[in-house]
Design brief:
This protein is an alpha+beta fold and 137 residues long. It has three helices and three strands; from the N terminus they run αααβββ.
């Protein structure tokens, strides 16, 4: 009487160790791709929020500039509006008498090009430009 190995065991389907490792590797790769997409989405959302806030701050500054008297210094405007935490506003003012060439203001000019720069921390986030005339709007 000879004992023959049970061939039916060899034909049974089961996961081998290699198949399990490959499946875990594929699932790990898919998880990494998903986490990377979530991270990118979070960074993009934060940047977008930062830009929208900066645009709102710049718009508020321009509205205050429109009502302000013609001057060579508008630095007080940023203290009139409420700035969000860690945001700051810088103004660059260039003057002109002919409306073509702009340069440093000396006092006799009738047109100003005012650049509003919104900073988050020390980093510029948004800038825009407006013009102001000594003769009113």
């Amino acid at each position: 009487m000879s004992i023959k190995p049970d061939i039916s065991r060899r034909t049974q389907r089961a996961f081998s160790l290699i198949e399990s490792i490959i499946a875990i590797g594929i699932l790990g790769f898919i998880g990494l791709v998903i986490l990377s997409a979530i991270d990118t989405n979070t960074k993009t959302s934060g940047t977008l929020d930062e830009q929208v806030t900066a645009i709102n701050v710049a718009t508020a500054c321009i509205e205050q500039l429109r009502t302000a008297e013609f001057s060579v210094d508008y630095s007080g405007i940023s203290s009139i509006i409420t700035l969000p935490s860690f945001y700051n506003v810088d103004f660059t003012i260039e003057c002109s008498t002919d409306g073509v060439e702009f340069g440093t203001c000396s006092g006799g000019e009738t047109l100003q090009r005012i650049t509003v720069i919104v900073l988050h921390g020390e980093r510029p986030v948004y800038s825009t430009c407006t013009f102001k005339s000594a003769f009113g709007e």
